[in-house]
């Protein structure tokens, strides 16, 4: 619920240079914003004390083994109150808070009975990527099994459009989708693996036949998938994706933590929160949904999925570099 006057935090001066708006600067330099964020992440029912100021917040982060660092120097309260604003120190704290949120989600999933989805991971980052790989491997095996069992596999191929139908536990495809292996964050940039994850949990809302799942993905193919994912998050998950399409497509190093934070948001919604429209393909041992926090119990398909997306033209991929040459901002 970002106030309208703060949703666009920048203004341009007469030289077309961007600056933070004064109200945004004052909010960042106060301790209220970060302390409130930390308290929301941890939850009011936790045994951990709620931070009252930035000194307490930085101490709590350190106790968790998360040290906010700005160019190898530990961030201090003086850095956060420095005028003019020392933005690199604030970004370090924001990164630390995103890390806490992701760790809390991974821990919650392990606690609620879905630890098998995250087993074998050495860190919370690896756990999130492992989750994506487990589900993509599941769908890959189902697809291959369906094709092997299909009598049409021995017949001559026919030029038909991709089709998705369910029969028992098989997923027969006329055109075999490609489920990529995810080894690092950049492997998520095509949208294939993420679309497969969402399809696994919400097959009635996101169909694999509606996304591009090819071995060789163009920029236009990837943008199409990422747009589909953004639309799903905006319509169904309270807009939990705060990354721009170019952020996900290019996945620069400085935004990879943001991407992992988004991945943890998906994990939270699909494994912990579980609105009624989340109906996983497998009957995996999942958690009992927690309080819905105002989520509507509407299990019908949102309106955006009742009409096809317009494909991104080839000219879109050609203009990607020109249109999005500006450095992404967190």
TrEMBL record:
This is Calponin-homology (CH) domain-containing protein. It comes from the Eukaryota. InterPro entries: CAMSAP, CAMSAP_N, CH_CAMSAP_2, CH_dom, CH_dom_sf. Signal peptide: none annotated. Pfam families: CAMSAP_CH (PF11971), CH_CAMSAP2_N (PF25532). Residues 157-271 form the Calponin-homology (CH) domain. PROSITE patterns: CH (PS50021).
């Amino acid at each position: 619920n970002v106030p309208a006057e703060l949703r666009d935090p920048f203004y341009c001066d007469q030289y077309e240079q961007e600056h933070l708006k004064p109200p945004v600067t004052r909010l960042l330099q106060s301790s209220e914003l970060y302390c409130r964020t930390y308290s929301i992440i941890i939850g009011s029912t936790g045994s951990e004390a709620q931070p009252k100021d930035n000194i307490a917040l930085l101490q709590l982060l350190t106790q968790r083994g998360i040290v906010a660092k700005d160019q190898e120097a530990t961030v201090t309260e003086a850095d956060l109150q420095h005028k003019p604003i020392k933005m690199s120190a604030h970004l370090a704290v924001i990164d630390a808070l995103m890390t806490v949120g992701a760790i809390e989600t991974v821990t919650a999933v392990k606690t609620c009975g879905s630890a098998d989805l995250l087993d074998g991971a050495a860190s919370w980052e690896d756990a999130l990527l492992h989750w994506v790989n487990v589900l993509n491997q599941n769908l890959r095996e189902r697809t291959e099994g369906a094709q092997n069992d299909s009598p049409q596999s021995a017949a001559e191929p026919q030029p038909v459009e991709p089709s998705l139908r369910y029969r028992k536990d098989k997923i027969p495809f006329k055109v075999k989708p490609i489920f990529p292996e995810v080894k690092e964050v950049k492997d998520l940039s095509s949208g294939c693996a993420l679309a497969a994850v969402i399809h696994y949990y919400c097959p009635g809302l996101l169909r694999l036949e509606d996304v591009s799942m090819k071995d060789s993905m163009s920029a236009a193919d990837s943008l199409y998938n990422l747009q589909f994912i953004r639309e799903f998050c905006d319509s169904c998950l309270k807009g939990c994706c705060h990354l721009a399409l170019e952020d996900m497509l290019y996945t620069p190093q400085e935004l990879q933590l943001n991407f992992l934070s988004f991945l943890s948001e998906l994990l939270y919604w699909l494994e912990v929160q579980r609105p009624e429209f989340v109906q996983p393909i497998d009957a995996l041992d999942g958690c009992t949904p927690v309080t819905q926090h105002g989520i509507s119990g509407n299990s019908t398909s949102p309106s955006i999925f009742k009409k096809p997306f317009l494909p991104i033209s080839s000219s879109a991929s050609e203009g990607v570099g020109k249109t999005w040459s500006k450095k992404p901002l967190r």
